TrEMBL record:
Protein name: Sarcosine oxidase subunit beta
Signal peptide residues on this chain, from the entry's feature table: none
Naturally occurring in which organism (per UniProt): Lutimaribacter pacificus
Pfam families referenced in this protein's UniProt entry, alphabetically: DAO
Compartments where located: Cytoplasm
Top-rank EC class of the record's enzyme: oxidoreductase
Domain Rhodanese: 34-78
Record GO cellular component, one term: cytoplasm
Its EC number(s): 1.5.3.24
An annotated Gene Ontology molecular function: sarcosine oxidase activity
Keywords assigned by UniProt, alphabetized: Cytoplasm, FAD, Flavoprotein, FMN, Nucleotide-binding, Oxidoreductase
Family: Belongs to the SoxB family.
Amino acid sequence: MRFSGLRVLTEGLTGNRGWRPHWRDPDPRPEYDIVIIGGGGHGLSTAYYLAREHGLSNIAVLEKGYIGGGNVGRNTTIVRANYGLPGNSEFYSHSLKLWEGLEQELNYNVMMSQRGVLNLCHSDGQRDAFARRANAMVNQGDDAILLDRAGVRRLVPYLDFDNIRFPIYGGLYHPRGGTARHDAVAWGYARGADGRGVDIVQNCEVTGIDIDNGRVTGVQTSRGAIRAKKVGIVVAGRSGQVAAMAGMRLPVESHILQAFVTEGLKPVIDHVVTFGMGHFYISQSDKGGLVFGGDLDFYASYAQRGNLPMQEHVMEAAMTLMPVIGKARVLRSWGGIMDMSPDGSPIIDRTHIDGLYLNCGWCYGGFKAVPASGNCFAHLIAQDRPHPAATRFRLDRFRTGVGLMDEEGTGAQHNLH
């Protein structure tokens, strides 16, 4: 089933009776060549690229809940490639290029909107840091525009520029950044993988990982044992728990990140705007709701909910930056479980167990990394060597100290990344 303008028109005129499910709901088979644990954006994109680029189809994606019920459906939808450190810079640049062709490739509307990402600076030091980052972005081949105070005012005149404590000095503008519809990304990759023969098995929780003589042989699940030659762990905030089934202790912590959305309003915010001193970020959805978030809840947890003090903190930051939204009513909030690494950068690597692969440590950056994460992880699983864009995402960097990528310079404290 392919989507087109003619198809949409035809179905609209005939009662929408010709649409079919986007993917099958199969029972798991006893054996696969590759099992992907985790049916979020990263797991689904991994399966898709394994099938599309490497010609593999005897693959299962095992999801303990439903597709779109994890972090891929619990985020603020931001897409960007404004990283400065070698390793991160190449990877997120690769991801943005994949985002830009994703709708055509998947034949699915993921509502990619390159409305631009604006990072505000509030001190001379921040402005200098943004200048260095902009140069790194341009050298990588991405776009970056350093704006002064007047340039920011022309772009977003509704901000509080003269706040006594946090006056706006300028900003770093990344025009190719923007937003995409989070759950549509999951659905599009699920549909694309299913169409290439991948089994997407929902309500199938992995309860154990089978290992024989140092090699993975399969997994135990709530729906029976499944044998596999290769297994990939892509479970975000549950990475530590699933890796423990294989006897591994990962250098990650799980923290909660809340997000919020207001009632629908007339268009007012045309970009993604971030507050440099309050760790607050906001955009406006196509339905009119203001989508925003802030800091982690700052305590380790596996609960998909947040606490009231952090909600108050985020609302205070919102009012500090743009008092104009003060009367908007918040409709709902939700929490995602972030797998925070010590240096704030991800891990895409083989483990010490033959046939067992790991993809985790995405911190705040999971959604914007979805295409490149799946593309690079599929390359690693299929060819047993890292993709050129992900060569620095090694697991052993935390043991050796070589190649650490602390993008924010905050040190080895998980919850500060």
